[in-house]
Amino acid sequence: MNFFKRAWLNLTAKKGRSILLVLVTTAIMLFVLAGLLIRNAADTATSNAKKSVGATVTLSANREAAFKKMRSSTSTSKSSRPKLTTSPVKLSDAKKIAKLNNVASYNATVSTSANAKGFDTISTSSSSGGMKGMGGMSSSSSGDIAITGVTNTSSVSTFESSSSKITKGRGITASDEGTNNVVIESELAKEDSLSVGDTIKLKATTGDKKTYTMKIVGIYKASSSASTQQGPGSTDVSNTVYTSYTFANTVKGSKYKNTADSVTFSISNPAKVSSVKTAGKKIINTSKYSLATDDSSYQTVKSSMNNVKSFADKIVWLVAIAGTIILALIVILMIRERRYEIGVLLSLGESRWKIVGQFFIEMVMVLIVSVVLAGFGGKFVGNKLGDQLVSQQTTTATTSTSSTSQGQPGGGGGAPSGNTGGGKPSGNMPSGGGRMGGGANSTASSAADTDLDINVTIMDLVELGGFGLAIMFLSIMLASGGILRLQPKKVLID
Predict the structure, then answer these.
(1) 148 CB neighbour count, 10 Å cutoff
(2) Can you state the angle between helices 296-337 and 352-406, rounded to 10 degrees?
(3) How far apart are alpha carbons 313 and 180 in whole angstroms?
(4) Is the dihedral of CA 421, 276, 152, 242 positive or negative?
(5) Any idea what DSSP says for residue 270?
(6) Which of 245, 63, 237, 77 is nearest to 152 (CA)?
(7) How far is Cα 132 from Cα 129, in angstroms, rounded to an integer?
(8) Cα 205 from Cα 114, distance rounded (Å)
(9) CA neighbours within 13 Å on the CB side: how many for 444?
(10) Rounded distance, CA 236 to CA 144, Å?
């Protein structure tokens, strides 16, 4: 009788012991599989983050160089008041960067302001006084309507993070270049009974102070947490409208044609954000412009998933080591229980290694059943453990992000132009883009929205089987010392 057949007969003869072995092995395999599933899901989530979360490179005026130049001129001539001069970004340079590898798209941002003509703006109860009235004419050069000119509103940080949402109509797209289309906030629309298709008039505050007729193509809802700006020329967030960057430049003046305050490039592969920045610096005049990178959302997700993956690996190895020890102890007990059987086989001339092989085959048979059972329960256990790990990492990421943001000034303020989040939270926004307003929350939100997609595949079961075989082999090797040292004559006499 070969040892394969003996192994099968032994398992079927002692059903109680075999069932106990199956239960113990299934429990071990279940947690090993859960760890493997969480680890693989974390890898997938990190990979998906490259597409969904992304990273950005922002081209804007080199303010550091501008300040250095201003200080230099001040030291040579103290008769005049120092003046900070920055250069608007040339779109021709931006388009060159847009052609680089790994650049998916770009969004030009231009910030300015105008006065409402023939409709009411949203007033505030601040000490600076409200601005409600027909046109709400401001005493300063800043208008009561903040204009954020963009290429696409969908690429604006507040819209990407869903803190602002289009509720009616549509947002601004590249097709709106050269038009007077506008997207207004829902509170402003409600105040003046405006809807999609209606027109409003805006009057420039500089130059010839021309009046422009704007067509409403969309209405958006700003975040309820968006704060009203304070200070001279401040305006309520509901008074911010989105237009094409070409119109915003028209309001600013002819010298701003084919320029932008900043241009944000979306990077298709966040891992390549540094190489894009390096390549971009070779294109631009670094004394006038700067390139700033922002892959914080991707890095947050990556860090969280790496922590989850690390914990999953620990689960796998701890359970594997514990399982090996447990099964080795069980096999040792089995060997002691079957000393007489082993002695008889040895006396009949059976090889010691064949007897060890019989025990190994018995455990492999148990393993096959256990892997199948673990396959049914692995997804459930993996989801429960995965949710706990992601929740823990999300809490950590949120706490860390909040602590960081508390040390930063403001929350969406910016310059008197009234731009509240007119670009991605990256780079140096010359006109008060929303770095402080949405970046932290967006980053934390990215981590919070990351889910582990846990599914059991054939490859997962194959990998589990490999781990199981290794565990069985090690446990048998640890326990086989008793078989190798056993003297059949002594066993049979005893």
Answers:
(1) 32
(2) 150
(3) 56
(4) positive
(5) G
(6) 245
(7) 9
(8) 6
(9) 17
(10) 9
The series of mean pLDDT values per 10 residues for the chain, 494 residues long, is 73 83 88 80 70 76 67 59 69 89 89 91 58 42 87 87 89 93 94 94 86 94 60 68 93 88 86 86 84 76 78 83 86 78 76 81 88 82 68 58 44 36 37 39 49 73 87 84 66 61
DSSP string, 93-162: HHHHHHTSTTEEEEEEEEEEEEEEESSBPPP--STT----SBS---SSSS-SEEEEEES-GGGSHHHHTT
Beta bridge partners of 185: 220
* 397 Cβ contact list (under 8 Å, min separation 6): 300, 303, 304, 443, 444, 447, 448
Report how far apart, in Å, the C-alpha atoms of 244 and of each of 97, 123, 178, 182, 370 are: 20, 25, 7, 8, 62
pTM over 0.85: no
The conformation of residue 197, written as its DSSP 8-state character, comes to T
Residues in the chain: 494
Q: What is d(CA 250, CA 263) in angstroms, rounded to the nearest whole number?
A: 17
